[in-house]
Amino acid sequence: MKGRLQDYLLLHFIVFIWGFTAILGKLIEIGALELVLYRTLFAFIILGVFMTVKKRDFVIGKKEIYKILGTGVIIGLHWIFFFASTKVATVSVCLAGMATATLWTSILEPLIGRRRVRLFEVLLGLIIILGLYIIFKFEFNHLLGLIFAVFSAFLAALFLVINSRFAVKHDHYTITFYEMVGAFLGTAVFLPAYAFWGPDDYTINLVGSNMDYLYLLILASICTVYPFSISVELMKRLTVFSINLTINLEPVYGIILAVIIFKDKERMSEGFYLGTLIILLAVITHPFIQRYRSQRRLKPPA
Question: Which domain of life is it from (predicted)?
């Protein structure tokens, strides 16, 4: 019981750290692409040194490495759109859009896992769309940021569905190391391509301020290597219900922290908070309904 309680407290601590990630993204002055490039570079170097010192195994087979590297590319794209959202909008808008990750998971799991679509998930999805509509209506000036965040949530859901299969087969540090390498390589390829085909006024800027590098080191170590690796490990001991329910609190933690740190810059309209509340209620309701349905299936007939 004591071990399970420690796992729950650790999970909440990790989600709290993730809630702080968007704030760091807002504080770092370099662009979203350069930010992700440095984040993933620092992350896999730190993790590589740690694994070498602790004599962790890097060898898992070429086929598996390629799969995990590919998943890392998805993670890199997820972070690019995530931080782009904080740059063009606000932390609160970004996290409100990220709350739709559960909706995307409910759509992707049946497609990838080849299971039936659940009616209650479709209904919750419609409620989430209603919440997004309300946010769009009241925060139209942040439309691009919200679109980026919703697409980032889609990529996050895709990554989680894929990553859950790796967690049962490989060490969590090994998985995280190769995913960070994949994310770095994907960003390194995408960065010059975006500079060439992207907006005419965009130029690659890899030189940040001293504070940028400090924030990046915090982002790569405390907000990436540590929580990313531990979350994969917790997948082996905690139920999907517990993990999903707790991760849903990330936007709550993040929005509260953003209002405390940035004050008036993060204060949004009443319509924004109404729409966000609708999304969060639908998201939090999802795992409760899922567990209730599972218990009914397991309950023996009278």
Answer: Bacteria
Q: Phi and psi at residue 121, in whole multiples of 5°? A: -70, -35
Sorting pLDDT into bands at 50, 70 and 90, what band is 20? confident
According to the 3-state scheme, what is the secondary structure of 1-50? CHHHHHHHHHHHHHHHHHHHHHHHHHHCCCCHHHHHHHHHHHHHHHHHHH
pLDDT tens-place string over residues 214-254: 999 999 888 888 887 787 778 777 765 566 667 767 777 88
Q: Residue 270: which of 88, 91, 137 has the closest Cα?
A: 137
Nearest 5°: phi and psi at 236? -80, -20
Enumerate the domain spans of the chain. 2-298
Cβ within 8 Å of residue 175, ≥6 positions away: 68, 163, 166, 167, 232
CA–CA distance, 117 with 135 (Å, rounded to integer): 27
Residue 175 exposure: Cα atoms within 13 Å on the Cβ side: 23
Please give the full DSSP string across 60-111, using - where no structure is assigned. S-HHHHHHHHHHHHHHHHHHHHHHHHHHHS-HHHHHHHHTTHHHHHHHHHHH
Tokens encoding 50 = 């740690």
Residue 255: phi, psi to the nearest 5? -65, -40
User: Are the C-beta atoms of residues 121 and 112 closer than 8 Å to each other?
Assistant: no
Tokens of 129: 């769309």
